[in-house]
Amino acid sequence: MQKHLSSYLNFLNFEKSVSKNTYQSYHLDLKRYLAYLDSDGITSIENITDDFISSFLASLYDLGLSAKSVARNLSAIKGFHKFLVREGITKHNPTENVETPKLARKLPDVLHQHEIEKILSQPNTTELLGIRDKAMLETMYACGLRVSELITLKQSDVYPDDGFVRVFGKGSKERIVPIGKSALQWIQTYKEKVRLNLGKLSRGRDVLFLNARGRPMSRMAVWNIVRENTVKAGIKKEVHPHTFRHSFATHLLEGGADLRAVQEMLGHADISTTEIYTHIDREYLKEVHRTFHPRG
Q1: Is this structure's pTM higher than 0.70?
Q2: What pLDDT is stored for residue 283 in this prediction?
């Protein structure tokens, strides 16, 4: 078995050209797998059953490994057995009927609507950069934008008369997202009172949001603006720019929005990515029930 393992590792290293981390992880996972085989007295591939592999995976859970780590172990084992079949070493593949453990999806942090309102009210709009920060925060929440989408948004991508913005998401995929009156009003105020001056300082071209030097905003600058105004609002949660996107989706669903419509606005290619927000919605409902039901 050790000889077969060495052959497989050479295959991963020289033919598949996997990364160093993947190679080391698979090496450790498969060494543990072979040790388990040995401890159970199994010396032949033909004697390995799917029940045995399921038992091995259960032992990993007992050791305290996460579902993600167990899934990686199974991936290594499946790859190993497929290699043995492909090389003609055996016709027996005991992993064919073993299912990958379902990974628990971590629910993203979400702000309640009153928390969003508190953050949005923090920028000092008597100052020029405060007006910019206010417009940025309003736009993030109004449209559920990723940071990369916000900092590359152009003036020509905003259609105030039609009430939407044109967004270029992952893979430069274009989508149209509605934008509310409040965000549009602050964008207009920013353009009239702030951007006209910032645009003269450097070559921001048509990019909507500029820094104090007239250049496009960086991701870190947006993060700092979000963090600063969250602290000023007295909110203790871990809030970052993507939290606005999560909150945007959750609040729409809480209000009764159709999942497909939210998928379209977020720019998710797969609706299963959007469905995570329905879980958040259920958590919200449970919280409401616990809070307000007399026997909650």
Answers
A1: no
A2: 57
